[in-house]
Amino acid sequence: MKFMTSEEIRQSFLDFFKSKGHTILSSASLIPNDPQLMFTVAGMVPFKPIFWGKIEPTYPRIATCQKCIRTVDIDNVGKTPRHQTFFEMLGNFSFGDYFKKEAIIWAWEYVTEVLKIPEEKLWVSVYKEDDEAYEIWKNEIGVPEGKIVRLGKEDNWWGPAGPTGPCGPDTEIFIDTGRTENCPNIDNCSPACDCGRFLEFWNLVFTEYNQDDRGNLTPLQRKNIDTGLGLERLTAIMQGVETTFDTDLFQPVIEKIESIFSVKYKSNPEQDISIRVIADHARAIAFMIADGILPSNEGRGYVLRRLLRRADRHASLLGNKRPFLHKLIDPLIKKMGSIYPELKAKKELIEQITIKEEERFLDNLERGTKRLWQMIDAKGKLNGKDLFMLHDTYGFHVELVEEILNGSDIHLDKEGFLKLMQEQKERARAATGNKEYDDVSTLIKTLHEELGGTEFLGYEMLETRSEIKTIIKKGVQVHQLSKGEEGEVIFDKTVFYAEKGGQVSDTGILETPSGVAEVLHVYIPHQDIVLHKIKVIDGLLNKGELALLKVDVEKRKATARNHTATHLLHAALRKILGEHVKQSGSLVGPERLRFDFSHFSQLKPEEIMAIEETVNEIVLSALPVTVEEKDLEEAKSEDVIALFEEKYGDKVRVVSISDFSRELCAGTHVENTGEIGLFKIISESSVSAGVRRIEAITGKESLKYLRKLTTLASDLKDVLQVQEEQILEKTLSLLQELKGKDKEIKKLKEKLLSGETSANDHEFSIDDVKFLVRIVEDAPAELVRNTADVLMQRLGQGVVIIFNKQGDKVIFVVKVSQELTKHFNAGHIAKNIAKALGGGGGGRPDFAQAGGKEVNNIEKVVNSLEKYVRA
């Protein structure tokens, strides 16, 4: 066995399987095209539709080096020799081509002949019922029976990459590390023992079955091979080191960490854990951002934020208080940039995001940790409100709190925390007008069973006739609604678009032989049943009647303009800001559109202008908007944008605008981009950390907006008595003039306030100490403080009190010369006076400020001042 670099190992694997007829493919993104998975967790994930038999493979044999993210063992990262969040998975795959025999023979050939790992160091395990694999190892390869271990499902059965999907038995290759210090029975030790002596490094999965959502197995028509060989583990083996962190994959980053924090790896066990956590998380963070994941409070972004904050937490244990992750990007790119060019391409983005996210969190880390321990000292536990406050105020995820309290038995009320988080989400949904119909009544479920779903015809037509299947009023079925009454109606078919996907519902009119009703809102409470909320405006509405359904055409057209515009906006954002931009939410109505997207900073004016111009160019090009219905798996295999959070059926609509935009979307759209009219962004703002919001208008609303601006410009021209092009110049000139007058007024006020005497001055002595009291009105706070200083200089030694009346309240200051503070305390005097004025306040012995609401009591206080001074 010879020493090999990670680059040599990676390339040797791909070269070997290329020689065996495999097509070599580049790594897929960490974001899988699969709604069941948050991340690409294994090499087979990009080929899952092929394993499922939903699409035909382009190549029967493939080999890859796939980048992966797994966070199920995040708490063990840094504490064990081999746990990682980001790792590379070498794999060879067969789609109905070769099976167990070839997979086993080639694996053994690569391990023993290419890597030259001695056979005497190798062991294998098989699923206890897989006699076929056992016989291949024994008879074809010649592995001694004593070194073939039969194990159960928990060890040698590979489940699906998600809740359902392809699965089957597997066989694993182990190396005997020779480390027996933790083994309770050295003479009988084997891969069945969990002492750590035997290290599994290659898993060959024989996908023979499909598992449904109940765990039932059915044989696949096409048997497949899926293998996973961890590059980090294999590199540790080939480089003769005990941990993956000692390999050349990690050492450049660890050396940089040593330099940044002035620490030495392997000099302190606790310190080493933090160094390993930072090294691991830095790799994961860089690759996640390079693949378009940005920090957020949900989904993938939440995982990224958790890794960032966990790295910062461990950096703080090394004495760090400033952003540092961006400094680890260069050694990472130097090591892996040629293999993964996206790291080089997104270097600036990775650095910007990590710096901003760290700055935001590090400001809170020290204060949050201090507050956490204060709560524990006071109560000995953390309830749901405590955890929610730490999360909401300091950005402390529950997992971070657990890590800070690692090893303690302090109780955390996670259930209470989750309840409060859910309430917050519901409040947010209510505030944005989004409706969630989670609480489905028994009546609706029963009606769905009886009536089935509602067929939607609204893509093709805006009017149709349909029978009123039932009427609901206040949760109860009724036969009739009278004029003025409101209720909900179900039809077997409808042309009204139900609110979903961010698009508001249609409104319109229902006409029957006996009456007319207004359609106020349309929604889907359960599966595919559609409810029409209506109000009868004339006559009666009866169950069983045939109704004419008429959509408000103008509202539908305006909404469609805005919906198509969101697709153009999304594409323009990705083109101008970068492909890290992802939709985070939207609201499409007839008046305007709102589009939330992931981005790390406020948009610059020139960026907003470029986005507007890009969208309007497509509008002016009058490109056709095409809609195709496709199988979900077929659509996902194409270059089409889909939302991770959305639930899609087996059939989806792909909305395309030339080669500029392709998205999965169930909404309504214009037929040609020229129908959109002027696209105008009216605001850009922050929604939360890492999420921005754009609001925009189109069509007639843009015309209204333009008219409003034109009227405003005309009015300003008349008021300022200048030509339109001179409005700005004249306005700036007036502002400059006003600033000059403000300064002049301030100087005059200062002169008046600090004058030697005033009609509102009161001078007297207490214990031979001079007191000067002045009463002023509506003076700036800074001016009052300055006046106190000026009056004290004139007094020489004594006490100055200035009352500043401000409408129905009073603010006052008390200033005591330094040498008198042992006898007269400004803070105490201010506090006593404030009580008499119905307020509060205080301060230092030499200066204090307070206030009150009882302005009429000022004269009374001044006349009895000695009482408040002595008190």
Count of discrete alpha- or pi-helical segments spanning 4 or more residues: 25
Morphology call: globular
Radius of gyration: 36 Å
Approximate strand percentage: 25-35%
Distance between the termini: 90 Å
Q: Low-confidence segments, ≥5 residues, pLDDT <50?
A: 431-439
Q: What would you note in describing this structure?
A:
With 871 residues, the chain is α+β, with helices and mostly antiparallel strands. 38% of the residues lie in helices and 26% in strands. It is built from 25 helices and 32 strands. The strands form six sheets. Strands 1, 2, 3, 4, 5, 6, 7, 8 and 9 form a nine-stranded mixed β-sheet that branches. It has a six-stranded antiparallel β-barrel with strand order 11-14-18-17-16-19. A six-stranded mixed β-sheet has the order 27-28-29-30-32-31, sandwiched between helices. The protein starts with 5 loop residues before the first helix and ends with a helix.
List keywords for this structure.
32 strands; alpha+beta; 9-stranded mixed β-sheet; 6-stranded antiparallel β-barrel; 26% strand; globular; 25 helices; single chain; 871 residues
Q: How would you summarize this macromolecular structure in one to three sentences?
A:
By secondary structure, this protein is an alpha+beta fold.
Layout of helices and strands:
Blueprint: H1 6-19, E1 23-25, H2 48-52, E2 61-69, E3 86-95, H3 100-114, E4 122-127, H4 131-141, E5 148-151, H5 153-156, E6 157-158, E7 165-176, E8 198-211, E9 217-230, H6 231-238, H7 251-261, H8 269-290, H9 299-317, H10 329-336, H11 342-345, H12 347-379, H13 384-394, H14 398-404, H15 414-432, H16 442-451, E10 455-456, E11 463-473, E12 476-478, E13 480-482, E14 486-491, E15 493-494, E16 508-512, E17 515-526, E18 529-542, E19 546-551, H17 553-576, E20 583-588, E21 593-598, H18 605-620, E22 625-631, H19 632-636, E23 651-657, E24 661-664, E25 680-688, E26 691-697, H20 699-720, H21 727-753, E27 761-766, E28 769-777, H22 781-795, E29 799-806, E30 809-816, H23 826-836, E31 840-843, E32 847-852, H24 858-863, H25 865-870
Helix pairs in contact: 3-4, 7-8, 8-9, 8-12, 9-12, 12-13, 13-15, 17-18, 21-22
